[in-house]
Amino acid sequence: MHPFPYDRFQEEAIQSIRKGISVFVSAPTGAGKTVIAEVAVEEALRAGGMAIYTAPIKALSNQKFRDFHALYGERVGILTGDVTLNPDAPLLIMTTEIYRNTLFEGSTRFSRCRWVIFDEIHYLDDPERGTVWEEALLLTPRQTEILALSATIPNAEQLARWIERIHGRPVRVIQEEHRPVPLTFAFQCEDELLWNLATLKANGYRGQDRLGGTRPQARMRRSRHGRLYFKRGPGSFGPPSPLQPKGRANRADHLLRQIQSANHLPCLYFTFSRRRAEDLAWEFAALGLIPKESRSSLLEQFDQLCQRQQISGERSAGEMRELISQGVAYHHAGILPTLKEVIEVLFTRRLIGIIVTTETFALGINMPARSVVLDTLSRRANGPRTVLRVRDLWQMAGRAGRRGMDETGFVYLRVNPWEISFHEMEHLLHGKPEEVSSRFSLTYATLLNLYRHYETDLVPFYQKTLHAFQAPQLHQRETLALVNRKLSLLKELGCLRPKGLTPKGIFAANLYGYELILSELFEIGFLDQLNLTDLGILLLATVYEPRRGSPFRPGSGQAPAKLPHRIQGMASQVNQVLETIHRQERRFRVGPLSKGPSFQLSMAMERWLGGAAFDKTVALAGLDEGEIIRYFRMTIQLARSLTGTPTASHALKGKAFELLKRINRDPVDAEAELRRSL
Questions:
Q1: How much of the chain, in percent, has pLDDT values that exceed 90?
Q2: Are β-strands 76-79 and 84-85 bridged in parallel, bridged antiparallel, or unpaired?
Q3: Positive or negative CA dihedral for 449, 453, 459, 464?
Q4: What is the pLDDT of residue 399?
Q5: pLDDT of 384 over the 90 cut
Q6: Which of 64, 128, 23, 27 is nearest to 394 (CA)?
Q7: What is the C-alpha to C-alpha distance for residues 220 and 280, in angstroms, rounded to an integer?
Q8: What residues have CB less than 8 Å from 589, skipping those under 6 apart?
């Protein structure tokens, strides 16, 4: 199928696929796991069956759709919640959530499915979404073979044995440690570039495990043009204060100069903050990373791509154009999805010298570079800063080194010896990646769907879970007790009959993540009373999650004071229903409490439904462009769920259908965006 010879692990996996044996592949990022998936798809289609390719994020689903569409044309379709194209095709690209939800529907549409590919299956370990992968694996039809693709993990054998147990079929485990393009690591510490751990310990850590005191900081100021640039570190402005530690701050511009001098561009620079990604991109734009004679061609291609994606007039595209002219871009979830795609195309064409990006860029998107930089080795996630996991570091580092183009990939780690110990540094580089553990946590909607089959006795289902396979007996009993308390709560709320679900329960079973608040509002007739605009406002408030520090956090049920009285009144009514739900959840000792709507974006939705331009809507929302698009698309997905809910009234379904059509225009229209990229 492919014009090149396969590596050993690829050949072993392909042989098993052609024999109809399920396979679990664990291999480094960039080793070539996609080749194996392509063979599984080809085998399924050649036999007259179908194949399903699941991916953890919509961006990766879109990329796989484009890749497979180039091979198979109209024989490939995509279902992500945002996009439905060619849904009856023999090859379907799906997010894992959509695949799981479709299986719960109990339809026979996958009866001809020969292979299902779970890309990035180590997502089983994701605290919020891992349970979706577990449920999807449990519900996969027995006649469908499974190809699981994972980054390097130490317990691949254990996970394969679990799949064997639940499906009664052999699963071959193929593990590969070798990278086709080896990696060379370098460390920037106290603004010096060091090429091995011994020198790092001696020079950077001064022979200690960790340096005490306060770390030095590089200072920044804003220029007249709004760009940021680094000033010299504290020691460069006269004698250091007695309270300041001896040492120099790492300068990102110094590191990029060295990467450029070593001819190690193009580079992916990973950071964990959107704002820092933008600031650093402007900083790097002053470095002259590409020759002047290349700039006109680069801008010409940028303009053509923007015109194709219909974003030439967007303010953000104009700002990015200035960066692009210097061979620099930033990439994060807050920018227009279409603009991200333009950046990705230019990077793939090797026209951009550096992309400063957040870590989601490392997840599956096939865009390797000659070098990778990690801005920091610790991050803050809902608490104090913690050192990166080994698996996370290698996921990002694995983007360095382009197969067939580079003899080695270069990974530059920016080390702060005041923040991370030398022992932790050694573990990051030489320690085993973390094992994948179950994150099993049945949502209310999942429980309702399972109740249709098992009624109150969910023990047979639970005994098949990865959690039951891994957890001690005590934890298993605690989990089953929580499940039973949730079932009791659902019974108290009127969602369950002795046999099957009530109309309210059927309604809730279709609304993953928002089932309790919307089903309570459905039962009292609140949803039917809303006009189309207010329904859109409520659904957006339901999916919206303000960032940390916002005065209108989920669960408050509050609306900003400047909103119209009718929306204030709607928020008050919804909050009363939410308080009732929370009382019952506390009574049955179920947590965390259900998320409540936040009405902060109400006026943005009202103006958008009234036909406002996108830039005006963004300004009113006070969010990044990518964020408002994400929440509008989530609202569309929730409205689409309402249209498919059997017990919803005809009028409510009609309003929901009209609503999703009204929201789904211009940059929000993910399907049109994807069609333009084909």
A1: 78
A2: antiparallel
A3: negative
A4: 92
A5: no
A6: 27
A7: 11
A8: 485
pLDDT at position 551 over 90: no
User: Which comes out higher in pLDDT, residue 257 or 362?
Assistant: 257
Helices and strands: H and E segment counts in the chain: 28, 19
Task: Determine phi and psi for 23, rounding to 5 degrees.
Answer: -135, 140
| SS3 state at 145 | strand
Task: Collapse the DSSP code of 379 into the 3-class scheme (helix H, G, I; strand E, B; otherwise coil) and give the result.
Answer: strand
- Whether residue 245 has a cis bond before it, omega within 30° of 0: no
633-673 pLDDT, tens digit per residue, is 999 999 999 999 999 999 999 999 999 999 999 999 999 99
Alpha carbon distances (Å) from 290 to 265, 294, 327, 329:
10, 7, 6, 13
Q: Could you report the per-residue pLDDT of 280-315, keeping only the tens digit for each?
A: 999 999 998 888 888 999 999 999 999 999 999 899
The residue behind tokens 């289902």 is 461
> At 404, which helix (H) or strand (E)?
none
Q: Name the pLDDT band for 364 (thresholds 50, 70, 90).
A: low
Determine if residue 622 is left, alpha or beta; phi over 0 gives left, psi from -120 to 50 gives alpha, anything else beta. left
> Residues near 590 by Cβ (< 8 Å), separated by ≥ 6?
482, 485, 486, 489
In this prediction, residue 316 carries a pLDDT of 93
Residues 330 and 277: beta-carbon distance below 8 Å = yes
**CA count, 13 A, side-chain hemisphere, 494:** 10
Angle in degrees, 0-180, between the axes of helices 315-324 and 274-285, rounded to the nearest 10:
50
Are residues 438 and 466 in contact, defined by beta-carbon separation less than 8 angstroms? yes
User: Residue 469's closest CA among 175, 171, 166, 167?
Assistant: 166
Give the single-character DSSP code of 511. -
81: its two tokens = 């919640």
- Do residues 129 and 56 lie in contact, with contact meaning Cβ atoms separated by under 8 Å? yes
What residues contact 88, with CB distance under 8 A and at least 6 apart? 77
pLDDT digits 0-9 by tens, 140-193:
999 999 999 998 999 999 999 999 999 999 999 999 999 999 999 999 999 999
Higher-confidence position of 221 and 50: 50
Whole-angstrom Cα distance, residue 345 to residue 330?
13
The confidence score (pLDDT) of residue 206 equals: 92
Can you list the domains of the chain with their CATH numbers? 8-175 (3.40.50.300), 181-233+247-288+353-436 (3.40.50.300), 290-351 (no CATH), 502-676 (1.10.3380.30)
* Three-class HEC string of 548-571: CCCCCCCCCCCCCCCCCHHHHHHH
Query: Does an H or E element contain 531, and which?
Result: none
- Judged by average pLDDT, the poorest of 26-30, 124-128, 383-387 is 383-387
How many residues make up the chain in this entry?
678
- Decide: 639 and 306 in contact? Cβ < 8 Å: no
Sign of the torsion angle spanned by Cα atoms 121, 126, 128, 130: positive
Cα–Cα distance for residue pair 346/342, rounded to 1 Å: 6
Distance between CA 628 and CA 281 in Å, rounded? 23
Query: How do strand 22-26 and strand 171-175 relate by DSSP bridges?
Result: parallel
**To the nearest whole percent, how much of the chain has pLDDT over 70?**
92
Q: Where are the alpha helices (DSSP H) in 552-624?
A: 565-587, 602-609, 614-621
3 state DSSP class of 280: helix
Of 215 and 607, the one with more pLDDT: 607
How far apart (Å, rounded) are the C-alpha atoms in residues 659 and 6? 50
